Amino acid sequence: MDASFADPDVITRLLDESRTWAFVGLNDRPERVVYEQAQLLQGRGKRIFPVHPSRAEVLGEPGYAALADLPEKVDVVGVYRRSEYAGAVIDQAVAAGAGAVWLPLGVVDEDAGRRALEAGLDVVMDRCPAIEWAKRH
Questions:
Q1: Can you give the residue ranges of every domain in the chain?
Q2: DSSP designation for 88
């Protein structure tokens, strides 16, 4: 994988300076990794936006069916979809004006990551926010 998708400075900046995170794939199932990650970042002061077709309220926040439905631009879009679907989500994040995309462990789409970089977004790929937070704090 391209090292630019795991830049430690970008990771630290996104964890420390971001205020809003949209979690694509987040629903009301606490056993899922995306739920745990959203809960962790919410507990560290980030505002979260659940994005899932069910539009379920999650962790006290209203759900949205798509990134285009969010009431504001977000700093980071967490792409909690399988790799084969990640590119479409990344393209939607670019279109929605997000500042960055973060793909968790095991989710990789380098072509889409390059498109996002070319559009001016920061990209973190194949990294876990909880692990990266623990390394830095």
A1: 3-136
A2: H
Mean pLDDT by 10 residues, the chain (137 residues): 87 96 95 96 97 94 96 97 96 97 96 96 96 86
Phi-psi sector, 108: left (phi>0), alpha (psi -120 to 50), beta: beta
Taking the whole predicted model, whether its pTM rises above 0.90 is answered as yes
Give the residue from 56, 50, 113, 109 showing the smallest Cα distance to 84: 109
Q: Do residues 3 and 33 touch, judged by C-beta distance below 8 A? A: no
Give CA–CA dist 10/39, Å, rounded: 21
- As given in the structure block, the two tokens for residue 88 are 């479409």
- Residue 129 in tokens: 């926010």
Q: Closest Cα to residue 106, out of 82, 84, 137?
A: 82
The label of the residue with tokens 């500042």 reads: 99
Asked: is 3-136 a CATH 1.10.3470.10 domain? The reply is no
